[in-house]
Amino acid sequence: MENEREILIAFQKGDKSAFYKIYGEYKNRVYSLIYNIVKNREKAEDIFQEVFLNVFKNKKKIDPSRPFWPYLRRICLNATFSFLRKEKASVSIEKIAELIYEDLILKKLSDKELVNLILKKLPPSQRMVLILQKFEGYSLKDISSELDISVKAVESLLSRAGKNIIKIYRLIEERNNRNKNYKAKEVEKNEVL
Amino acid sequence: MRCSEAKELFLIYISGEIEDNLKKEFEEHLKKCTSCKREFEILSSFVNNIEEEKVKVPPELDFKTMELIEKQKRDSLFHQITKFLYPIVFALGLIIGVLLGMGLNKKEEDKTLSLIKENTFYIEPYIQSISAEEVLNERTE
Ligand SMILES: [Zn+2]
Description:
The structure holds 2 protein chains of 2 kinds. By secondary structure, chain A is an all-alpha fold. Chain A has 2 domains: 1-89, Rna Polymerase Sigma Factor, Chain: A (Orthogonal Bundle), CATH 1.10.1740; 92-193, Winged helix-like DNA-binding domain superfamily/Winged helix DNA-binding domain (Arc Repressor Mutant, subunit A). The mean pLDDT of chain A is 91. Chain A has helices at 4-12, 16-38, 41-57, 68-86, 93-107, 111-121, 124-136, 140-147, 151-192. By secondary structure, chain B is mainly α. Chain B folds into 2 domains: 3-48, no CATH class; 71-134. Chain B is elongated and about 120 Å long. The two termini of chain B are 67 Å apart. Chain A binds chain B through residues 19, 23, 27-28, 31-32, 35-36, 39, 44-45, 48-49, 52-53, 56-57, 111-112, 115-116, 118-119, 130-131, 133-135, 139-140, 155, 158-159, 161-163, 165-166, 169, and chain B through 7-12, 15, 17, 39, 42-43, 45-47, 49-58, 61-62, 64-65, 68-69, 72. The structure holds zinc ion. Zinc ion binds at residues 3, 6, 29, 33, 35-36 of chain B.
């Protein structure tokens, strides 16, 4: 954004159009970051509103001499993470794998679509770490300081994400094999008859 | 390194942030263990294939957010006004309180007078006046 500093100062003084400019400039980036972490439209919308309300309420905390995005991103991540902390995982990995398998068969997913689907079904805080590494270029240390958790905790999220992903692939493969065997037996039966 | 330890490190290795001494052990393990190697490859390709879903703010969300912020503005304006009005309301309350107290006083005085007239002995008038401190205490409670 051009003249970001001036616009931020105007916003702090209560200039409505300055706020609209900031909102217009960053809204899609904010929404996309939140959505890609929570992977749910309704939840993303709630967190999104909370983020801009926070920006508005705490406008005096903004430092106009510094780039705005890192400040805004921090608000996003904090809001998202505290939202996710309140949520408890309710579905087992086995059930998730079963659902993914059904989609895989019905919709004939490509590799990339499968990855996206698995990512979507991972526990959100595990997905969050992967997303931040991949799209925001965060190091483990960055993540730890942004989310206010230890590096060990970030590593543990990554370890668990890895194990879950492997498990889902393994369960899908097993399911696939069972299906093939079943079909083979059906063919045998028909041949005998 | 055991398989269970190696599995813990898959995504940390992929992120390029594994400690040097662990890195060597990890790579040694993958050379020897085909099942870990296979799982590691699945995860590498998984991470490579992660793509950001392109999404945009739906128009009704713009609307909802602006509405929320307008509401916040109104609320904070209301808050400021009440903050400003509070001393005035308080002073008015105090004045009314004092006036009422005086009114009561007057009635008491009248009663006393009639009592004196009727009974011809002196009765100390009982006057209940509300002190400013009492009013304050009540307000802050
Ligand atoms: Zn192994």
